[in-house]
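Revision sheet: structure tokens.
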Amino acid sequence: MEEGCVNLDFIQTLIYAAINSVQPENFIPANAALSEGKLCIQGKTFELADYGHIYVISVGKAAYGMALSLDHILSGFVTEGIILTKHRPEIFDLDTK
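Predicted:
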């Protein structure tokens, strides 16, 4: 590449990587994990047995994706939750009791 030229493919790759990294289905699992009844969020561990109920509250444009991703990680530990967003997906596939 000549000096002063911009590599548009590289810039596009960076933009897509940045957008992809903050998508709820990528961001939440990268920062939260469940193992043996313990929820670890960015290095902080919560023993879920210590809590009588787990409630998920999610607000904003990415609320549905964030709640869905967390619900998949918690797989059955969520007592109840609420999603507040203007952006309603066509299909809700949250685990429900």
